[in-house]
Structures are given as C-alpha cells and as structure tokens.
Amino acid sequence: MTSLLYLSLFAYFAAPAAAQTFTSCNPLNTTNCPVDIAFGTNHTYDLVTYQAGDSWNNTAGNIDYGLSGADFSINTRGDAPTITTNYYIFGGEVEVWMKAATGQGVVSSIVLQSDDLDEVDWELIGGNNTHVQSNYFGKGNTTSYDRAVWHPVNKPHEEFHNYTVRWSKETIEWFLDGASLRVLKYEEANGGHNFPQSPMFVRIGIWAGGDKNNDEYTVEWAGGETDYKKIPYTMSVKSVRVTDFSRGSEYSYGDMTGSWDSIKIKPGNSTVAEKLNAPPPMTASQRWNKLSPETKIGVASAIGVSCVILAAIAAFYCVRQRKAGRKQRAFADQQFQKETNELMAYRQKMSKGGFAVSSREV
User: Which residues are catalytic?
Assistant: First the structure.
C-alpha cells in the first residue's frame, strides 16, 4: 500500500513537468548547442501601455492587449498562448503581476527554464481559488515527488497579485505580494544536484492541463478535465520585471555538468540590453535645445532668408496673376461692348423696317 501511494504521488507531481518542459538542445548531451544570449540588465515591461515587444517570442495562440494588460486566452481546444524571452538570465529576479485564469483543468504558469532542464515555477490551477504552487526541477529530474509546495493566496482569479522569484547561486526564494513564502537552499535540493544553476529564459502562459489527451495524473493535478464548452479562459498580465544578476553578452556551458561554476560569461554588452535601454527618439524641441548658439543663429538666418524668398515668390505670383486678371477683364469688357453695340444696331434696323419683306420677293 505504501509503495502504491509513493508511486501515485510521484506521478502526480512529476506529470505536469513532463507535459510542459522540453529542450531543443541539451548541453548535458552535446557540446554543439548554441550559446545563450545574455539579458545583462534590468527592465520592466508595462503590458497595459505597451506590447511585450520583440525580446519575447509569442507561440501557441494569440495574445490581446487592453486595459488589463496582456490577455492570454484559450479560445479553442489546443490553444496555449505563451510568451518566452529570447534571452537568458544567470541568477536574477522575475516579478509578474498576474490574474490567473478560471476553469477546471486550466493552468496559469510563470516558468524559468534552462536548456538542460533546470526549472523554477509558479503555477495556479483554474479550479483552485485559494492556493498557488511553487516548484522547481534540476536537470529534468522528476524522481522526487516532494518539491511542490502550495501557498494560500486570496482570490487569484479575481485579483492581480505579484508573483516573484529571486534566484542566486545559493538560494531560490518565492515571494507573493512582496512577502517571502519559501526559501530553497542549494544543499536542500538533493545536495545541490537538483538545484537550478544554469542560465534560464522566462516563459509565461496558459495551458489546458486537464485536456483529455493528457495522462490521468496531469489531468488530476490540474483539477479535472477541461470543459471547452465554457471557453474562453483568460489569464491577464499587467507587467513583468526581469533582472539579470550577471553582466555579459553571452552565456555558454564550459562542460557537460551544467553546474553554476561551469557556465562561461562572455564579456561585452548585451544586444538585448542595448536595444531596451536605448534612449527614445528626441522630439523637435529637444533636438533644437541641443544645438549650439551659433548653429541656432545659422538655422534661424536660413529660415529667415527662406521666408523672404518665399514671400517674394508669392508677391511676384500675385502681381502676375493680377496683371493677367486685368487683361482678361479688359478683353471681356471689350467683347461685351462689341456684342452690346451689335445688338443695339440690330434693334435700330428692326425698328426702321430694315428686315421687312417686299411684295416682289413674294
């Protein structure tokens, strides 16, 4: 009986990870994986005012932006709208203001994940309006069933909450609305073997853990089978703040252990950071204020000369148009006078019988 309970618990907690975690190239198995682009900075994404931008990749469904920020919706079976950073952090902090989706079997998730399947999670279940789960994995190891912890949270489907993870070489800490809920020390994660310690990207999204095609343990963990007749199911995100504790342009694996000390940091500026931190285009007044006094005088003089030239051209055109107008008017008057004279002569001739018909002509 005990062994069956152990197996059930193992599958219960391991299944969600297997359902959502994958890697296109695992550095533990090959030395040919591409390097990871470093974030190397701190940035807040205001999703109420702006879209996520080109430092995120959007997959598996559409995301709508409105007064609630970014809305991730399951509108049909198979939807799992997700945004993933195209950069990595090596140690850092991720803060997300989120309102989770309702719906049995619907999962709202915030995930940090590495190429070698280190992972740190926040996950909320659509049918659970009282708790949020924190979890972690090391190198894709799902042999342990006791990593997940459920924490009380007030109305996560109705109110926005601040979900934060702070990750360093020594500890991982989960915060809810600024209060620390959980601290994981390096040695507590299977002596460090399961402690996440390689560069990770950020993934935020919604998915149907209760889809009937998932295995029974995933469906059970997600709270039951998802009812697609009640769609849409929507998760909303107001803002995301990402901080990279390391500075560099690239992260790479120095060997196939995936340990913290094996990670190499290439010196230089992050291309992502340079783009995000670039100053916005200057306004016309800002560009004018940056000019030297001599340049301003030159510009003003050029504008003055241009105005004089334009005024002269306009005056010349007006004078020419007036002359042409006077000529046209004089010609018109002459034509009118000529036609008037002819009409008067015709009337006089008529009055004198100039057009009477003679008897000889009849």
Answer: 119, 123
